[in-house]
Amino acid sequence: MRLSTGLALGSGWQQHAVALLALLLLAASAVAPASAAPNPKAAELEAAINADYKFSRTNWDSAVLNDTLSNPYLESIHWSARPPRFQFTVFTQLTLNRLPTLFNMCSSYTGPLSAAVFLAVVQPLDARGRGSEALSEASRGKVEAAAAEVAEFHTKVEADPAICQLDIMFFYEVYDSDQSKLLYPVNYLRNYARMQVRTRLLAMVDVDMYLSASLSAEMEAEGSIPRYERLCAERRATVLPAFEPTKPGALGRIMVTYKRFYEPWFITCEEIMPWYDVDFRGYGMNKIILIAALNYYNYSFWIHPAAWLVHNPHTDTEVRKVVAEEASQVNKHRAVLPANALYRKLTQLFGKAKRGMMRGSYTPRTDPRQMAVYDVVRWLPRPPQLVGSPTPESVFT
């Protein structure tokens, strides 16, 4: 009897324990880290971006002389499951080694942030010009290690509710040489980071900028987002000054006239935001041509009176050093650069874009693979179809 009673009591206790455990597991699942459950839209977007990918090595001469496109592959995508604090997204791009810089940006900004992170993979051909048509084992190891680093970084950001809500894409591109990897696809990455923006209001800000706390506070205030969206109907670009506004108050609202080589950071709406021209790779002119396009598309520039950016200085990249040296040879010594010199290519591209704007026929070059995604992923907002006005030549002098 005692044994029987003991078994009955034990069985009842076990049932209660199982029920309690089930409740605890259910509660734990409700507060599980956001990264535990992949976002189905993010997975759909990743598949669509990679659908037309074909392995190839990017070659310097082919890119510079023949305008062949970059060939990035989207290795992974992680979206924040934390609700956006407000409906305004900053988007940016960076190399893998600058993840700490992205964390600094994320710490200075409390809203949605879309980032495209990049790794260059060098996989040379052999002496006979032959090579595998896939990632080598060594290259695959580098990509997987980088992907793990990006995933760990995203988990770290997700765990801190006080900072940004981060959506992050991780791309790599295969190059045939160390020289070729200098062709960093900066405007491809900006365009892809912009593609995953999930708000109407957005701003491209380079990753080495801190954002003033006043910007996040303003965007969180009631009525701010609709006010900025109304400015879009007038094609006003709200400029975020670097460092700080020179004068506070109403003077911050006066118009700024476009001038050659002007390259501010600005706030606008998705449906009137031009694409970044993917012909500009490596270093130089990549933001400048976008701002020239804003002028071509009849934007006016207005200074934000109370928000700004602070630059976080960093050492020059290798490609910037190359372009600076080539520019010095031309401007100081009147050197004639070889046809495959990057600075020469950049000046040709700028001249081509300038002539297109003067004629009223300019259209920024985009990645056909990216544009094809819009035909597959139906929930993406359609890309803008903007019409510009002929620009006087005097603007560019």
Short description:
The chain has 397 residues and is of the alpha/beta class. The chain has helices at residues 2-30, 40-50, 60-66, 99-107, 137-158, 186-195, 213-220, 224-232, 288-296, 318-333, 342-359, 368-373, and strands spanning 73-78, 88-95, 112-122, 165-175, 201-204, 209-211, 236-240, 255-256, 265-269, 300-303, 309-311. It has one domain: Spore Coat Polysaccharide Biosynthesis Protein SpsA, Chain A (Alpha-Beta Complex).
Structural account:
By secondary structure, the protein is of the alpha/beta class. It has a single domain (34-319, 344-380), classed as Spore Coat Polysaccharide Biosynthesis Protein SpsA, Chain A. The protein contains 12 helices and 11 strands. The chain has helices spanning 2-30, 40-50, 60-66, 99-107, 137-158, 186-195, 213-220, 224-232, 288-296, 318-333, 342-359, 368-373, and strands at residues 73-78, 88-95, 112-122, 165-175, 201-204, 209-211, 236-240, 255-256, 265-269, 300-303, 309-311. Helix 5 (137-158) links the parallel strand 3 (112-122) and strand 4. Keywords: Glycoprotein, Membrane, Signal, Signal-anchor, Transmembrane, Transmembrane helix. It is found in: Membrane.
